Amino acid sequence: MRRRTGFTLIELLVVIAVIALLVGILLPALGAARKQARTVVCAAALRGAGQGFELYAVDHREQVVPSYTMTGTSGIGVPLDGWGPILDRDGYLQGAGEVQLRKSPLTCPDAKDVPGLLAGQTGNDPDNPKGWMDWPCIRTGAGFAPTTIPDRGMEKILRVAYWINADNPIGGVVDITPGQYYTLSVGYGPDTRGMFMGFNRLSQFVRPQSLVAAADGVYAGRQRNNRLGETNSRIGYRHPGGKGSANAVFADGHVALIDGSRFPTAIGGSVPNAQVWRENTGGQPSVYANPERTLAPHAP
Known about the structure:
This protein is of the alpha+beta class and 300 residues long. It has one domain (32-298). Helix content is 23%, strand content 15%. The chain contains 4 helices and 12 strands. It has helices spanning 9-59, 83-89, 273-280, 291-294, and strands at 68-72, 79-80, 133-135, 137-139, 144-146, 158-160, 162-164, 166-167, 183-188, 212-216, 245-250, 255-259. The strands form 4 sheets. It has a 4-stranded antiparallel β-sheet with strand order 7-10-11-12. Strands 1-9-8 form a 3-stranded parallel β-sheet, with no helix packed on it. Strands 2-4-5 form a 3-stranded antiparallel β-sheet, with no helix packed on it. 43% of the residues are buried.
């Protein structure tokens, strides 16, 4: 008679234990690899946005694409177009898709499916800066309502999950400082001197390789509250690194990760003025187009 051969129960248990051990070892590595891949995809999307910024400036005599176009100072009831719809409409950024969060050049694959500015600010919910905002839109006072603008050639709503470094004083009368940040809200005004915001130009950037143009996050402006965990921060720290990092595209088109504890801030927030000087000068990432000139009163 033939003798039957096979695995014993103990052998099967040993094999299962070994497989479980290998899975336990491999899963964290696979998870880290997936996170890294999403970070790379996000960087590619921001690099594409940076190329769109550059092409727009080339075609418009060095003018930087506005964060959005507006009239008045409050913005209430006036359609705001937004840099994403402008680049999409004019062919500088293709494939954005209508109200699309995934697989879009205007969103990070790690963006949360959260309307980040539903209440007008991001508040203290850490998920809000990691979310999105729909453009074009109308400011209602308490928040923003998406809308198309057919007379400007904007027939679709685009979901955007990136912040742009803009002079964004919407909501009140603030004196205008031309060329302070990367871009601005063209048409804002008049301020107390009767000035209106025009376009920034590439020639105003002292070190474009250090000037943050856009980053993970929502909306625009509020540079004084850029740090991880700060109330109403609009930077979305979605990627590994420290307690969280953000991809950023610079005015020269390159992309780099910035740690949440070192993202450059502007005067007026919780960071001491002397520290704002140190962190924005010396070739480090900066939110200012000309940090030495702007921050000269706070130089050591």
